[in-house]
Structure formats: structure tokens, C-alpha cells
Design brief:
Helices cover 62% and strands 14% of the residues. The chain has helices spanning 2-42, 47-83, 86-92, 97-145, 258-266, 272-303, 310-337, 343-366, 376-390, and strands spanning 158-164, 172-179, 187-199, 204-217, 224-236. It has a 5-stranded antiparallel beta sheet with strand order 1-2-3-4-5, covered by helices on one side. The termini are far apart.
């Protein structure tokens, strides 16, 4: 019987968890959809590449939406059981609060494991893979962006024109380039053919020109120079079109694993601001999965409070708790970045505060002691009564 009850409670939590997880992840993804659509429409990036971007970005969304979905699902699921007096029947049958907590603990541990795997492994790899996929896409963008009989100025300091481009895009013929990267002596380059060559190690894209010449005139228009060449390389600044190329050669803190972050902290000679950023990221990778356990402890006593409008109250209460939690987290990170508190204190305060609150409420509920969770509606009602009592 106990196994049946545990599975029943888990089912009540699992259904809203999946629905809320899908909705929250989709909402966060919509913030990036516009940027991805711009790449597709204006840069000519294909649908398959856009889909790969979405897959690579998913872990960075799930690390936040899983804990939030767990909390709201517990509030909705247990709230429904409490509102239909099923919790009361279970207690009357001899099932204690500690026994009711077993399926919640299982759900919290599953969410903790999922979030830990995503945060510690998938997010760093996803962020790093996203950056390099963006580079690979940029190579395609360079060839797609250059169209025949059209002047292209997507690359910093260069104006490119190609007379003809075959259907396979293997090369360009009749190429004209205006190079203004050297402002003192702008030059014009003419070539019969041009090829795009990428260097995955250096993360650069080069246009190799064949059988052409460069024409340069000084700023005073007094001297003219011409140089013939058989091959001539022009580096394309892909960063001006899609990304900052300088950031590709080193991993940022969000792209490092726990071991890499620890190695960075042990190095000497690094800037304090960078060390604080690394320390914040390291502690976040550890504290975010723990929020699943914290929300499980906190959601249990709040969820079994009998009330009407189960779904609306569960969602609103969950939104309020999550907002307070992440406000504390952002405030702690800001204090760490300014050097006012240490990284462990700034990043772990939300878990400590909400974990302590969850334990206290759990004990009070287990002992059948009455308590009221404050609400904005009740606070507003009390303030209105106070104003009416003071009167003119």
C-alpha cells in the first residue's frame, strides 16, 4: 500500500513537472529565437544549423528550469491532494509527514541528478560547442554572404565584389576588393579567382586570391603603386559579422568544467576580477543542483496546506519563491564581484536561507503546528484595515 501511495504522489508531481518544464524552457528559448531567425533570414544560415544551435543551448536553459519546475510541480501536485482532502485521509490512515516526504525526496533526488549532470558536464560542453559551431557556421556565412554582382560590406574594412560564382560556390571569379583596413593607404585588389580557406586551429577564414594585382594610392594622391601576384591572402574578419573572434581562442568561465575552474583559481598572476568570476561560476555549478533538494524540502510543507484554486496558487507561490531565490542569488553575485563578500558566501546564501526556512516549516507541519505563509493579498488587506482604522 505504501508503494502504491508513493507512486500515486509521484504521478501527481510528474505530470505538472513535465508540462511546466516544457513551457518554461520554451519561454526562455523564445528569447534566443529572434537572434537565430536573424541568422537564418539575413545571414543565410540553414535550418539544420539553427536546430543544432537550439540543441546546444538547451542545457543552459534546463539547469534553471528543472529546479523551478520541480518546486511548482510539488506545490500543484500536493496542493491538489490537500485540496481534495486526500492528504487528510492519508494522515488518518496512519501515514506520517515523514512517510509522505519519501516520494518528494525521490523526485528531488532525480531532479538533483539531472541538474548536476547538466550543470557540471553538459552546460560547459554545450557553451564551448556553441562557440565552435558558430565558427563553422561563419565559414558557410562567408561563402553564402558573398553573392555575385553584389557589393558585400559584411566584413570589417573590406568591400567585396564577385563577378561570377558557380552554383556549387567552390570559387569566385572576377573579384574586386576595396581594402580600407590601412586607412592611410587604402588599396584596391583585383583577381581572376578567389577561394575561401578556413583554419580550424587558428579559427580564421582567409580569402585566397589568384592571378591578380593590388593598386595603392597614398593619401596625397601623388604616388601610385601596383603589385602583381600569383596568390594573395586576405583575412576576413568574421567577428564583425557574427561573433568576437578573440573570445574563441580561450575558454570563458561558463565553458570550463569544475576541474578547469579549480586549475584557474590555483594559478597566480591573474586579475582579481577574473578570479572572482571564476569562483562565482565554480560555486554556481555546485549550488544550482542543490536548489532541487532545497525546493523539495520547502515545497512539501507549503504544498500540503489546504487551499482552493490549487494550480493558480501553486504557480503564484512558486513564482514568488523563485523570484526571491534568484534575487538573493543575483545580489550575492553582485557583492562578490565588488569584493564585499567571499564567493562561497555570496553564492550559497539563497540555499542556506531557503533550506533553513524549509526545515523549520517541515518540522512545524510534521508536529501539526499551525502557521501561515504570508501573502501579498493578506498584507495589502491588513494595510488597508490599518488606514481605515486611523481615519481622518
Amino acid at each position: 500500500m505504501r508503494k502504491t501511495i508513493n507512486l500515486y504522489i509521484l504521478r501527481e508531481i510528474a505530470i505538472p513537472f513535465i508540462m511546466i518544464l516544457f513551457v518554461l524552457t520554451f519561454v526562455l528559448l523564445m528569447g534566443r529565437i529572434l537572434q537565430l531567425m536573424d541568422l537564418m533570414v539575413n545571414k543565410g544560415i540553414g535550418f539544420i544549423d539553427i536546430a543544432k544551435f537550439i540543441i546546444l543551448l538547451m542545457p543552459s536553459f534546463l539547469m534553471f528550469t528543472i529546479p523551478i519546475s520541480l518546486l511548482v510541480a510539488i506545490l500543484i501536485g500536493l496542493g491538489r491532494l490537500s485540496g481534495d482532502n486526500e492528504i487528510t485521509v492519508m494522515k488518518a490512515s496512519g501515514i506520517s509527514m515523514y512517510q509522505l516526504s519519501q516520494p518528494i525526496a525521490v523526485a528531488s533526488l532525480i531532479a538533483f541528478t539531472m541538474t548536476a549532470v547538466i550543470t557540471l558536464f553538459l552546460v560547459p560542453q554545450g557553451n564551448y560547442a556553441t562557440k565552435h559551431h558558430l565558427y563553422n557556421v561563419s565559414k558557410k556565412q562567408a561563402s553564402i554572404g558573398i553573392r555575385e554582382k553584389v557589393f558585400i560590406d559584411d566584413f570589417k574594412g573590406l568591400l567585396i565584389y564577385a563577378e561570377t560564382i558557380p552554383l556549387d560556390g567552390a570559387y569566385m571569379a572576377g573579384v574586386l576588393i576595396s581594402d580600407t583596413r590601412l586607412t592611410e593607404e587604402p588599396s584596391t585588389i583585383i583577381a581572376k579567382k578567389a577561394y575561401l580557406i578556413s583554419d580550424p586551429k587558428a579559427l580564421t577564414v582567409t580569402m585566397r586570391l589568384e592571378s591578380g594585382s593590388t593598386h595603392t594610392v597614398d593619401t596625397g594622391l601623388k604616388n601610385y603603386r601596383k603589385m602583381d601576384f600569383s596568390t594573395y591572402d586576405v583575412n576576413l574578419d568574421i567577428g564583425s559579422a557574427l561573433f568576437d573572434e578573440n573570445k574563441l581562442k580561450e575558454k570563458s568561465s561558463g565553458e570550463m568544467t569544475v576541474l578547469e575552474l579549480q586549475e584557474k583559481l590555483q594559478k597566480t598572476g591573474l586579475e582579481k576580477q577574473f578570479l572572482r568570476e571564476v569562483a562565482i561560476e565554480l560555486n554556481k555549478k555546485l549550488s544550482i543542483p542543490m536548489s532541487c533538494l532545497i525546493f523539495g524540502v520547502l515545497g512539501l510543507p507549503l504544498g500540503i496546506r489546504a487551499h482552493r484554486s490549487v494550480k493558480s496558487r501553486g504557480i503564484s507561490m512558486g513564482a514568488m519563491i523563485v523570484a526571491l531565490y534568484y534575487m538573493l542569488q543575483l545580489g550575492g553575485e553582485a557583492l562578490v564581484q565588488t569584493g564585499k563578500v567571499s564567493p562561497p558566501v555570496g553564492t550559497w546564501v539563497p540555499n542556506l536561507v531557503f533550506g533553513l526556512a524549509g526545515i523549520i516549516l517541515f518540522i512545524l507541519t510534521a508536529r501539526e503546528m499551525t502557521w501561515n505563509f504570508p501573502s501579498f493579498h493578506g498584507l495589502f488587506h491588513r494595510q488597508q484595515q490599518k488606514r481605515e482604522g486611523d481615519g481622518p
